[in-house]
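Q: What does the assembled structure look like for these inputs?
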Amino acid sequence: MRLKDKATLITGATAGIGEACAKLFAREGAKVLMSGRDQARGDAVLEAIRQAGGTAEFVTGDLRQDGVCDKLVAETVARYGRIDVLVNNAGILYSAPAAETTDEQWSDTFAVNVTAVFQLARAALKAMIAQGGGSIVNIASESGLNGEPGLTAYCASKGAVVQMTKCMALDHIGDNVRINSVCPGETRTKMIDDWLESLDGDIEDNVNELAKILPIRRLARPEEVAYAALFLASDESSYCVGTNLSCDGGNAATGGPYPV
Ligand SMILES: NC(=O)c1ccc[n+]([C@@H]2O[C@H](COP(=O)([O-])OP(=O)(O)OC[C@H]3O[C@@H](n4cnc5c(N)ncnc54)[C@H](OP(=O)(O)O)[C@@H]3O)[C@@H](O)[C@H]2O)c1
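A:
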């Protein structure tokens, strides 16, 4: 088991990539504290993990609200005695051209994708430093490495996560806390379905059209991204510090998410 008894907080564990991380990490022996807002979906993931013999608990919380990030880290320490791993996964995406992006979309994007990531990492760092080490994995995006039309707020927020990962990693390299990110490409989750649904045409046709322009010619499954996060969370990545690991079916290799 690659994360045996590791106390692990995973945000956005009620769906998509976070759900896949929660299930995979629990299979690898982690004691998982899942967070999200949707009680029913959280309970369903929790049940699946427990049925499979894993250890997990679910705490609801909206990451935009004051004090929630600190509370989630404190809950992890209270329930499991420490926090070895934080997966900063929760994220949101609004699609709109820059001139039509509203103040609310901008501030919401930054509240969830940037401020909460910082506040969770800061709280986790304090606990990890006190206990002698840990590992933080941010789920950034290929959109943090390249520009994309219609995604100014999202790309700016993920660019911030990429830079935060590098800076925080250097600040705390001497504290035995490693901080890295995964930069996924298009992954078949509700987030990508919602975006494809907002475009003209049938959603499955849009999925197929999107797949055609990806070097690998298909979207990722959430589990494929979870395996990249598992590597960075585990001691197997002991020499990875401030890395932004692309897991994108070849997109970064093209210099941008555009046709090859
Ligand atoms: N899918 C992709 O193609 C893709 C590509 C690159 C990067 N990513 C990144 O991967 C991460 C996961 O995305 P996904 O595709 O799995 O998205 P998803 O299926 O939409 O899931 C998003 C998760 O974030 C949680 N969340 C959203 N707003 C929240 C809030 N205010 N407070 C607490 N939790 C909140 C949701 O939980 P509740 O609904 O329960 O609140 C949900 O569990 C995100 O950071 C995303 O930017 C995704």
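The two ends are 39 Å apart (CA to CA).
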